[in-house]
Structure prediction request, 91 residues.
Amino acid sequence: MLRSLKENIAGAVDLSVVLMIGIAFAGLMVVAYIIWTVNDTLTTTSSSAAQNASLLLITDGFDDAIGLLIVAITIFILAIAISALLMLRAR
Prediction:
């Protein structure tokens, strides 16, 4: 017989979900560091303005994408924490 989610304490938060989210955060931070390093290395005063502009567009796009992913993962973590707290409180 299926119990409701409120009564099922075993389904609160799995450690593997937390580890996957932590690994995703670490991976996003590494990718962001690589992008910023490449941008700082390739954007110089001796390179052409068109090259600097195209490189800036590429790295800004990656920065925006990583920022949005980090916000989405943070909201997901908060949702898991709030649901776990509500389940523990209802116990």
Notes: The helical segments are 15-42, 49-90.
